[in-house]
Specification:
Layout (H helix, E strand, L loop, with lengths): L10 H51 L22 E6 L2 E5 L14 E7 L2 E9 L5 E7 H37 L1 H11 L19 H47 L4 H33 L8 E3 H11 L1 H7 L2 E5 L5 E3 L2 H18 L5 E9 L2 E8 L9 H4 L17 H11 L3 E6 L6 E8 L7
Helix pairs in contact: 1-2, 4-5, 5-10, 6-8, 8-10
């Protein structure tokens, strides 16, 4: 049973929320801008109505005041009288509308004014006729707000009703747009553990194709890794049979020996077989860890001469047995990036191969120099060497060459080659010392990326 992931979220819900939030934010901004613009235009329009009404009163004020018919003055068509009208002459209130107060709406100054009268805010236009009549036409500010709010409400309601429909449409549309992801998830879920075939991407949207390409690249690398492991396990199982069979045979000889000398020789063969199997197992584990990425180039720069001296000390028994001469031409201050573990394995395999396959008195020379932004490490010997036609094969696993005398497993140079790949370097092989033996040149850059 699949457990729900903590902290998981719905992409559809996020897209819907983000889209609706954007729509609402834009709508609110547009509404605010419309409100400001409508308020300005409404004020201009209603101010014009005030001025027009005042002009009509001035025109009629030149006649008999009793003949002025206020009910015929223009209004805004509402079901209540919005305009308040006053005609003043000689400081006395003459004709006025029913909703006008008994006091002047505004000071007797020609023009527009915003005032408060009887606790009500008014927008008033004041003018004076040639006969000396003062005409004041006012409108409550609340009436203007009511008109504006009513207009905005008529605009807002359709938008508010449209938001749920928009959300439903987005929910369905986003769901259909994300259906390719669901199909990919189902295709991945239906796979068997070792199925590394690429996922089909022909009908996938452009936004999903980069994900599919990276998944397919991962499947390809996984398939290659699985195939390498299969070959490795097959080769390793084959190689391990030989020393096990040899140990068993020597043990049987020791068990049936007729004298002590024969038993000692058989037990010596058992010990030699155990040593060989120990070395083979160590090489197999090293190669497996390299392939799995457990061993990498981490660890920073190290002094190469110290690493080389440590390796020669580890191989001291073989050096004395072979009466070998090992020359280290490595500057003491030369530092190399790559990590002590990898460099130690690399040198131990190269020097160990020279000792294992060389004759008594074999010479091994280790040289290292700086070359630009890289270190060139050169290991040469005067042993039997490897023919030029077989050198590429020597880098493959479990390749024992006719010239290699010593019963190795054919993993030494394969491990070296893999380490060089991890360090991002280059490996070339040539002749050894004095035109004999084998020479292995390694170029390791200062800044390298692991090659997996």
């Amino acid at each position: 049973m699949t457990r729900p992931m903590t902290g998981a979220f719905s992409l559809r819900a996020r897209l819907l929320a983000a889209t609706l939030a954007t729509v609402v934010a834009v709508w609110l901004a547009a509404t605010l801008a419309s409100y400001v613009q409508a308020r300005r235009e409404l004020d201009e329009l209603l101010d014009a109505h005030l001025a027009t009404s005042a002009a009509l009163l001035v025109a009629q004020a030149s006649e008999e005041l009793e003949e002025i018919e206020l009910e015929h003055l223009p209004d805004l068509g509402d079901d209540h009288q919005r305009l308040a009208l006053q005609v003043w002459h000689g400081g006395e209130l003459g004709v006025h509308s029913a909703n006008a107060p008994d006091t002047p709406l505004a000071p007797f100054r020609q023009g527009f004014a915003n005032v408060r009268a009887s606790g009500v805010g008014w927008r008033v236009y004041v003018t004076r006729s040639r006969e000396g009549f003062w005409v004041q036409v006012g409108e409550p500010e609340s009436a203007r707000r009511d008109i504006l709010h009513e207009a905005l409400a008529r605009q807002a309601w359709p938008m508010l009703l449209a938001l749920p429909l928009l959300g439903l449409g987005l929910w369905i549309g986003v769901g259909r747009g994300l259906s390719p992801l669901q199909r990919i998830a189902q295709a991945v879920d239906a796979r068997v553990p070792l199925d590394t075939a690429p996922l089909p991407s022909d009908d996938a949207p452009h936004e999903i194709r980069p994900l599919l390409e990276r998944l397919n690249a991962l499947f390809a690398r996984t398939g290659e890794s699985i195939e390498r492991e299969r070959r490795f396990i097959g080769d390793a199982s084959h190689e391990l049979r030989t020393p096990v069979a040899a140990i068993r045979a020597q043990a049987q000889v020791a068990q049936g020996a007729r004298d002590e000398d024969e038993r000692r020789r058989a037990l010596a063969g058992v010990i030699a077989g155990c040593d060989r199997m120990s070395g083979l197992t160590e090489q197999l584990l090293t190669l497996s860890r390299l392939e799995a990425g457990v061993l990498d180039s981490a660890g920073g720069s190290v002094h190469l001469r110290e690493i080389a001296e440590d390796v020669v000390a580890e191989l001291a028994t073989d050096v004395r047995r072979m009466q070998a001469r090992i020359v280290l031409d490595v500057p003491g201050d030369l530092r190399i990036e790559g990590g002590a573990v990898l460099l130690r394995i690399l040198l131990r395999n190269l020097i160990g191969n020279a000792l294992r396959h060389g004759a008594e008195g074999v010479r091994v020379q280790v040289t290292a120099v700086r070359d630009g932004a890289a270190t060139v490490l050169d290991i040469r010997d005067d042993g039997p060497g490897i023919p030029a036609s077989r050198r590429a094969d020597a880098l493959e696993r479990f390749q024992r060459l006719d010239a290699a005398q010593g019963g190795g497993a054919g993993l030494g140079l394969a491990i070296v080659n893999r380490i060089v790949q991890v360090l991002g370097g280059e490996l070339t092989m040539g002749d050894g010392l004095d035109g004999r033996g084998l020479g292995v040149a390694l170029r390791i850059p200062d800044y390298h990326g692991a090659s997996r």
